[in-house]
Automatic annotation (TrEMBL):
GO molecular function: oxidoreductase activity
InterPro entries: Aldolase_TIM, NMO
Keywords of the record: Flavoprotein, FMN, Oxidoreductase
Gene3D superfamilies, per database record: Aldolase class I
Source species of the chain: Nocardioides hankookensis
Name of the featured protein: NAD(P)H-dependent flavin oxidoreductase
Pfam family for this entry, one: NMO
């Protein structure tokens, strides 16, 4: 399992692991892939500084990347704008009443009430500034092209830039802006997705951008067979996120280290997810639970645009996590969840991916005769 991107980044396998966990990112890099740390959870740049320092020291000198959430178009921000005041009372009331109906208790006074500020453009730029003081080899943006000046700054530091795309036209726009690698993320993926499935999307994007722009396949990839399929479609590697949620390293993160979390994903099938705007305000695939279903009931308000929706539900998500109820938990995850039936170390997951990929290629070679 080797493509030109392996030589480009100095990795053994073209497996790119998006994860909010530094422990997962480090383990993937040590196992021969490229761990990519999602930074949106960091409200405090000092905490991000500590985590990236830890990554520098715990990847055995191997490369890693970071993922930020930075829209190309800058939303209204600044001290003169109170984003909280833009959230309608109707929405706040709905969230409070829904949590009460679902039996989700309040948090202890003073705990967990701050929203995730990483969705804000200004905070994302501060994440970039911190990252540039460390040694990432890749900066990825979950919301498409970063602003051109950000791309240029990354290139000045010798860092490649990747951007997610859900349509060929988006990929072409990224290339025009200077993005180096396109992540073709299909409808099956967890988190923010477009409307085109991976089997159709990947060759569309590969053909659109041409042979000189590497493409990573994403969405619905959780096995060696699926990596082989992605490479057969023209991609040079796999961008994987959901599969790492079922690892022992991921369980070192707060709410993920709970019986409810494990129960929620190990019992789910590939049909137990839903694409909705209730998490951030943009379409994202989540585990289907009583919380997501409540937003579909008659009388429920329409989700707000990003970043207002995230600010609206931030405390609710903290309360849901603390409640430890698998029927309510709010979890971004892809349709690959149906294959996540046990918790395993990252190294074992990578080894199985590689072994199944090699067996698949051998089988295809035998068919070719």
């Amino acid at each position: 399992m080797r493509t030109p991107l392996c030589d480009e980044f100095g990795i053994e396998y073209p497996i790119f692991a998006f994860t909010p966990s530094e422990h997962v990112a480090a383990a993937v890099s040590r196992a021969g892939g490229l761990g990519v740390l999602g930074c949106v959870r960091f409200n405090d740049t000092e905490e991000l500084e500590r985590v990236l320092t830890w990554l520098d020291e715990n990847t055995d000198g191997k490369p890693y990347g970071v993922d930020i959430v930075m829209p190309m178009k800058i939303p209204t921000e600044g001290t003169s704008v109170d984003l909280g005041a833009m959230i309608p009372e109707e929405h706040k009331k709905f969230v409070d009443e829904t949590l009460l109906k679902l039996g989700v208790p309040p948090l202890p006074e003073g705990e967990g009430r701050e929203g995730v500020l990483g969705w804000l453009h200004s905070v994302a730029r501060s994440h970039l500034d911190v990252a540039l003081q460390h040694r990432p080899v890749l900066i990825a943006n979950a919301l498409g092209s970063p602003p051109v000046d950000v791309i240029e700054k990354c290139h000045e530091h010798g860092i490649k830039v990747a951007a997610l795309a859900g349509a060929a036209k988006h990929a072409l726009s990224h290339v025009r802006n200077g993005v180096d690698i396109i992540v073709a993320q299909g409808y099956e993926a967890g988190g923010h997705t477009g409307e085109v499935a991976s089997m159709v999307l990947q060759p569309d994007i590969v053909d659109a951008v041409g042979p000189d722009v590497p493409v990573l396949g994403a969405g619905g990839i959780g096995s060696g067979r699926q990596i082989a399929a992605s490479l057969a479609l023209g991609s040079q590697g796999a961008w994987m996120g959901s599969v790492w949620l079922g690892t022992t390293e991921y369980q070192q993160m707060g709410a993920a280290n709970s019986e409810a979390w494990t129960t929620a994903f190990t019992r789910a099938t590939s049909s137990d997810t839903v694409r909705t705007r209730v998490y951030t305000g943009k379409p994202a695939r989540l585990l289907k639970t009583k919380w997501t279903e409540a937003w579909n009931e008659e009388g429920a308000p329409a989700p707000l645009p990003m970043p207002l929706q995230n600010l609206l539900v931030a405390e609710a998500h903290n309360r849901i996590s603390a409640a430890n109820d698998p029927d309510v938990i709010s979890m971004p995850i892809g349709q690959i969840v149906g294959r996540m039936n046990e918790v395993r170390p990252v190294a074992d997951v990578v080894a199985d991916l590689v072994a199944e990929f090699e067996a698949t290629v051998e089988r295809l070679n035998a068919i070719r005769g």
